[in-house]
Amino acid sequence: MKKSKLLILSMIMLGCVGCTSTQTGAMWGGGAGAVAGQLIGGDTKSTLIGGGIGALGGALINDYANQPKPQPQQMQRIIPPPQPVQTQMIEVMPAPIMVQPPVQRYEVIMQPR
Question: Largest CB tally within 10 Å, which of 3, 16, 78, 83?
């Protein structure tokens, strides 16, 4: 019995030698789903449903995990280049300070002589 389980497991592993990563993920997900379906439902229908859901989930998870990560050069292409800023030079002169001289008042008194 132990040898037959080992033989079945090795055949499954060798059967997926030329598979893509998506197919490998579907295989492992299907196997895990079938085991979970059998444990939960206890009949053939539950095993098949669990295997199908597990295969779909395993393929999707593997595709998401193996997406190519953007490289820094690719990210630079996404960001638009900065637009040139138009500037204008103006000259600001301080206003002259106007100091008014103090007003002096003279009172002239004229007296007859």
Answer: 16
